[in-house]
Design goal:
With about 300 residues, the chain is mainly α. The protein is elongated. It contains nine helices and three strands, in the order αααααααββααβ. α1 (about 10-40) packs antiparallel against α2. The protein has helices at about 10-40, 40-65, 85-110, 120-140, 145-175, 180-210, 220-225, 260, 265-280, and strands spanning about 230-245, 245-255, 285-295. The chain folds into two domains: about 10-210, Alpha-lytic protease prodomain-like, CATH 1.20.1510; about 220-300, Alpha-Beta Plaits. The two termini are about 25 Å apart.
């Protein structure tokens, strides 16, 4: 079974989407910076900070997608496939910081709300919403391709909802004169940011800690491998996710000693690899098995289990 590193094709295919989304987002940032200065709106300022963070995140995602195309080397045996995970982790960390700032500043402004010009606010909010919808359309078809693209899509979706909150605040201020609507909208944007940031932090940290890929039950894998003919036991089973779409698995498999003299060992290895590649919800195409005779476990290191 071939052991080509998966995922590089999707990186090549979707870099263009990331580039377009980055260009749109960067243009909106410039526009909303002007709007935040003109209006003094906290909601627009927070949405701009959020958008600036997301523009940086999209830039990181674009760089990571480019790095992921580099081939493996003796020093980096997986190439730069994990660059997408590091980029997503950086985005999540910055989003978390922005979300905390939103809450702190909004609480301060609730006590002393400034005057906000509603007309200018709705104009800049509408510009932001239109740009975010355009970026969403660009990313929508590829949002499940990788952690990078998923993070980018979620960020732009949050930006679109943030722009919508800015527009609603402007309408409320224009119709009722209630200036605190701007601060409430800022809190709503913060409520959108924080859960996404925490969730993305959890997912990326799980990959970096080499946790078992979601949807893969190692005990189920072990029991399935034990059904292969001549297999006596399976131990030292490990699984992790190198990058999106690239789960890996390794295990020590004890077989009858006779298999090493009658030619069964090679066929057993083929069956083991086929099992993990085809029989589970998470297809593991990159697997490594150490096939051992039943006399070998006596010599195993105590840490193997």
């Amino acid at each position: 079974m071939g052991h080509d590193h998966g995922g590089t094709e999707s990186h090549a295919t979707h870099r263009g989407r990331l580039a377009v989304a980055f260009g749109i987002t960067a243009a909106i940032v410039v526009t909303q910076v002007v709007g935040a200065v003109v209006t003094g709106s906290l909601a627009l300022l927070v949405d701009t900070a959020h958008l600036l963070t997301d523009a940086g995140g999209l830039g990181l995602a674009l760089v990571a997608a480019h790095l992921a195309l580099r081939p493996p080397s003796p020093r980096r045996t997986w190439g730069f496939l994990r660059a997408e995970v590091l980029a997503a982790l950086a985005q999540a960390a910055v989003l978390l910081a922005v979300g905390i700032f939103v809450v702190v500043e909004a609480v301060r402004r609730l006590a002393d709300p400034p005057e906000i010009p509603s007309t200018e606010l709705v104009v800049f909010g509408a510009i932001g919403l239109a740009g975010n919808v355009a970026a969403l359309l660009v990313l929508a078809g590829a949002r499940s391709a990788s952690l990078n693209l998923r993070a980018a899509f979620l960020e732009v979706l949050g930006d679109a909802l943030g722009s919508l909150a800015v527009i609603v605040a402007a309408v409320v201020i224009a119709t009722t004169g209630w200036q605190r609507a701007d601060t409430v909208a800022a809190l709503a944007i913060g409520a959108l940011i924080l859960p996404r940031a925490v969730r993305l932090l959890r997912e990326t940290s799980s990959v970096l800690l080499e946790s078992t890929p979601p949807g893969l039950d190692l005990e189920e894998v072990r029991q399935h491998l034990l059904r292969v003919e001549h297999v006596r036991s399976v131990h030292d089973v490990h699984a992790s996710l190198i990058a999106t779409g690239l789960p890996t698995l390794s295990a020590h498999v004890v077989v009858d000693s006779a298999c090493f003299t009658d030619g069964h060992a090679g066929r057993i290895l083929d069956e083991l690899q086929e099992c993990v590649a085809t029989h589970f919800a998470v297809a593991v195409e990159h697997s490594t098995f150490q096939v051992e005779p039943d006399t070998h476990p006596d010599h195993e290191h105590p840490t193997h289990h």
